[in-house]
């Protein structure tokens, strides 16, 4: 790929980040190009945040390659040598796992019985997860890197500068932890537990750590290299940056202090911290921080039940440095934002368009001639129990469009039914019209009867505006709210003219007649 310096002027955050990284490599060229990294703690399963971090890193990586013409690599690094701190809730054989607390994840039997270790099982899940979305990455295991000697030289360097590294971390700790802190975590030679103990002696020339087992009082000597110890979290992050020459890594707002401290340690070791990007964390529907322990978030499995993966990418792309609410109600908007951007991409390859980054420049997907919000309203009106009922209306609205010709629309029809059944149907409530609304609905009924059955969406929308203006609504928004609430049993919806064109004028006349009949019956 040829370099294109003009891309520095593109007002899109991936290109802005790429320019920062380009400046770094211009100052210290690397023939192999840039190394991107994203990290993963494999004590749990991959989640929606994992997707977001890898997707966002990928967009910066592609922008960097376009801008500079240089190669790049992305490693997904699993910290699988960490000690298991607690037994997860969502695994079998919890009693067995409890017997191995404190040991590295790759030294614990797999509770699922499918892999050589618990760490290997979760690593396989991570890779399968990333592969599902087509990410281009190289997997890296902390255990393999420590035991294979990839970190040996960096560990010895850290041993030589042990007190300087401690000097970075100690001011951030309480008195008790300060008394025991060391950047090194030796693996107990008998129990296999990752030990958090102070070092009695650090002898880099002898490749040796000396420490005392607090339970037995016995003195132990552990090799620094060869996977016999690992580094503490912030020191480990710095060690990785230094040993591998990581050029770019992004992280959440909750890790700002860790990034700063790890950067200081990386410099003490003689390295340069990577270019970084801080993204905001997600909030729940009440504006509270999402917590896995509270279960107040939205899982990626849930998102993918109700919407395509491209819509999740759209959500992740937009304003990553602004806190956003991540709950079920944001899904329809994300889908329709993606569809709109896909249409723009097909018309012009605008580098500020999120779809440009989601599809790496271009897409042959024909998209959908019908918005997701419209499909949701259709599913609601017909009480859809399967996508096939929607296709009768779709075929009339968009002749020649089929599931085969428009695979995205086919997926959306399935998602719309699932979303309707789980979220819309339980909350569906038709209210009676007021006297003002009753008169307006009668007027609309007459107007629709005078239109040809094949009137287009704009003609119908114009009629809706005319009817609304003829009646004494405080504003036209109240008129359209009436249509959604009285006819559809929902609080809001898409352009109503488009919905009528999709559902059909005769069907809409039937909705109005039914609503007026319900009112008369209630009276």
Automatic annotation (TrEMBL):
Gene Ontology, cellular component aspect: cytoplasm
Membrane-spanning segments: none
Alphabetical keyword list: Aminoacyl-tRNA synthetase, ATP-binding, Cytoplasm, Ligase, Nucleotide-binding, Protein biosynthesis
Catalyzed reactions: tRNA(Lys) + L-lysine + ATP = L-lysyl-tRNA(Lys) + AMP + diphosphate
GO molecular function, one term: lysine-tRNA ligase activity
Position of sequence motif 'HIGH' region: 42-50
Keyword Nucleotide-binding: yes
NCBIfam families listed in its UniProt record: PRK00750.1-2
Protein name: Lysine--tRNA ligase
Species whose genome carries this gene: Siccirubricoccus deserti
């Amino acid at each position: 790929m040829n370099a294109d310096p003009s891309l520095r002027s593109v007002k899109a955050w991936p290109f802005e980040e790429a320019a920062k990284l380009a400046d770094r490599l211009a100052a210290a060229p690397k023939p192999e190009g840039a190394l991107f990294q994203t990290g993963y703690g494999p004590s749990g399963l991959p989640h929606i945040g994992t997707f977001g971090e890898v997707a966002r890193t990928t967009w910066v990586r592609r922008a960097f390659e376009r801008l500079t013409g240089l190669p790049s690599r992305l490693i997904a690094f699993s910290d699988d040598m960490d000690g298991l701190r607690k037994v997860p809730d969502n695994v079998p054989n919890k009693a067995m796992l409890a017997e191995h607390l404190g040991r590295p994840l790759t030294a614990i039997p797999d509770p699922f019985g499918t892999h050589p270790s618990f760490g290997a099982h979760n690593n396989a899940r991570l890779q399968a997860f990333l592969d599902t979305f087509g990410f281009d990455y190289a997997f890296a295991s902390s255990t393999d890197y420590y035991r294979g000697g990839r970190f040996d030289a960096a560990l010895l360097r850290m041993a030589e500068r042990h007190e300087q590294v401690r000097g970075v971390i100690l001011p951030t700790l309480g008195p008790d932890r300060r008394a025991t802190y060391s950047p090194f975590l030796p693996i107990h030679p008998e129990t296999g537990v990752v030990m958090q103990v102070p070092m009695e002696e650090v002898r880099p020339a002898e490749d040796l750590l000396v420490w005392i087992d607090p339970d037995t009082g016995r003195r132990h000597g552990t090799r620094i290299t060869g996977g016999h110890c690992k580094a503490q979290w912030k020191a480990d992050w710095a060690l990785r940056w230094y040993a591998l020459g990581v050029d770019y890594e992004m992280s959440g707002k909750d890790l700002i202090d860790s990034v700063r401290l790890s950067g200081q340690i990386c410099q003490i070791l003689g390295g340069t911290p990577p270019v970084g990007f801080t993204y905001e964390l997600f909030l729940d529907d009440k504006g509270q921080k999402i917590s896995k322990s509270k279960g107040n978030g939205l899982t990626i499995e849930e998102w993918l039940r109700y919407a395509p993966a491209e819509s999740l990418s759209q959500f992740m792309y937009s304003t990553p440095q602004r806190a956003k609410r991540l709950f079920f109600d944001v899904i329809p908007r994300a889908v329709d934002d993606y569809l709109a951007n896909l249409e723009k991409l097909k018309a012009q390859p605008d580098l500020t368009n999120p779809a440009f980054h989601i599809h790496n420049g271009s897409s042959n997907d024909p998209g959908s001639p019908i918005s997701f919000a419209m499909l949701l309203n259709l599913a609601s009106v017909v009480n859809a129990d399967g996508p096939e009922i929607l296709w009768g209306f779709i075929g009339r609205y968009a002749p020649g469009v089929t599931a085969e010709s428009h695979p995205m629309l086919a997926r959306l029809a399935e998602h719309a039914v699932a979303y309707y059944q789980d979220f819309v149907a339980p909350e569906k409530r038709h209210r009676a019209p007021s006297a003002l609304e009753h008169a307006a609905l009668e007027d609309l009924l007459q107007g629709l009867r005078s239109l040809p059955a094949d009137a287009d969406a704009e003609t119908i929308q114009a009629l809706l505006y005319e009817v609304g203006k003829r009646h004494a609504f405080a504003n036209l928004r109240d008129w359209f709210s009436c249509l959604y609430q009285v006819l559809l049993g929902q609080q809001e919806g898409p352009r109503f003219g488009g919905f009528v064109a999709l559902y059909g004028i005769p069907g809409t006349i039937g909705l109005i007649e039914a609503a007026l009949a319900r009112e008369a019956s209630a009276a």
